[in-house]
């Protein structure tokens, strides 16, 4: 009798324990479901905005690139790869592409080198550092329209400061923005003055993360400022330099506003960027489909450059 009672009690405890365990599992499952719902509720605004303002425009742009859609509302029929075939054989598009690449090459080197020099001067303890930081970064805060107007005045052939400087050195004045030989250089100079402050801040932040003990040890070993810069500072700025180069190349490839504004919207064979040509195809010539096709050809080239740069960086790390 006692054995039966014991067995019955054990079975009862097992049933009760199993029921309690099942209830705990149900509560935990319900808690996880609520947490997931709360998580999706917090993510929903971002996902909706992401879909509306990124996924949908990209998908719609790809669709437009296969049509003859016009800004006037005419057309819209499917034309297959005709827009892409025309873009790849369009000499104006390739000239615009080369202008963009040429601007990127001309602007990237000084924007990196000058930013590095400015950051090094401030980091080494120039008097009035707050004033130098403010003056170096302030132009970056100005709108492109303001920057463009300032440099249009500076490059004015009659009253501009640029020609006054040339005449002070006994040189002939130039029609900076009107001459095809100097108009791209003028845009590069204005762009460097405008945007170098951002790269300066990135370099300065990277320099200030270098442990000061390294400079102290180098000083005790007799290393001067130049040796410290070349042996300590510069090698540790590699990641910052790679980041600045990537950001700068991407920014330079999007050349449009300062060139458009400084030249009064007049495109030339030496300054028309690929973004301006996309704008002209879509909003001047009303060819939305062709404009979309050019933009995706440009996007494909940027992806190729980005992948090549990533492969080169990975190869360098492996070495």
**Helical coverage, percent range:** over 70%
Number of domains: 2
Please state the average pLDDT score.
Answer: 85
Rounded Rg:
31 Å
CATH arch. level architecture of the largest domain: Orthogonal Bundle
- CATH-defined superfamily of the largest domain: MetI-like
Residue stretches low in confidence (pLDDT < 50, at least 5 long) are: none
Largest sheet: none
Number of DSSP strands?
Answer: 0
Specify the overall morphology: flat
Q: Helix-strand pattern, N to C? A: HHHHHHHHHHHHH
CATH classification, class level of the largest domain: Mainly Alpha
Structural class: mainly alpha
Strand content: under 5%
CATH topology group of the largest domain: MetI-like fold
Number of helices: 13
What is the terminal separation in angstroms?
A: 81 Å
List keywords for this structure.
MetI-like fold; 13 helices; mainly alpha; flat; 319 residues
Produce a short descriptive summary.
Helix content is 76%, strand content 0%. The protein is an all-alpha fold and 319 residues long.
């Amino acid at each position: 009798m006692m054995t039966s009672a014991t067995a019955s009690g054990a079975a009862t405890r097992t049933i009760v324990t199993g029921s309690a365990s099942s209830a705990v599992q149900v509560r935990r499952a319900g808690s996880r479901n609520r947490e997931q719902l709360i998580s999706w509720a917090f993510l929903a605004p971002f996902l909706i905005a992401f879909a509306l303002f990124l996924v949908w425009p990209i998908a719609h742009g790809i669709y437009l690139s296969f049509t003859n859609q016009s800004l006037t509302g005419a057309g819209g029929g499917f034309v297959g790869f005709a827009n892409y075939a025309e873009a790849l054989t369009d000499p104006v598009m390739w000239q615009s592409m080369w202008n963009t690449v040429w601007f990127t090459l001309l602007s990237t080197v000084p924007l990196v080198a000058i930013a590095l020099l400015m950051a090094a001067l401030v980091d080494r303890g120039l008097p009035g550092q707050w004033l130098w930081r403010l003056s170096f970064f302030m132009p970056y805060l100005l709108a492109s329209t303001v920057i463009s107007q300032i440099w249009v005045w500076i490059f004015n052939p009659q009253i501009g400061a640029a020609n006054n400087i040339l005449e002070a050195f006994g040189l002939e004045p130039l029609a900076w923005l009107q001459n095809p030989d100097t108009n791209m250089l003028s845009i590069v100079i204005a762009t460097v003055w405008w945007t170098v402050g951002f790269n300066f801040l990135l370099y300065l932040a990277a320099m200030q993360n270098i442990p000061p003990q390294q400079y102290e040890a180098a000083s005790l070993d007799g290393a001067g400022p130049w040796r410290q810069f070349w042996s300590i500072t510069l090698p540790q700025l590699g990641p910052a330099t790679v980041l600045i180069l990537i950001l700068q190349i991407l920014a330079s490839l999007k050349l449009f506003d300062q060139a458009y504004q400084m030249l009064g919207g007049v495109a030339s064979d030496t300054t028309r960027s690929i973004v301006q040509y996309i704008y002209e195809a879509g909003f001047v010539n009303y060819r939305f489909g062709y404009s979309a096709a050019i933009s995706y050809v440009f996007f494909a080239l940027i992806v190729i450059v980005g992948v090549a740069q990533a492969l080169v960086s990975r190869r360098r790390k492996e070495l």
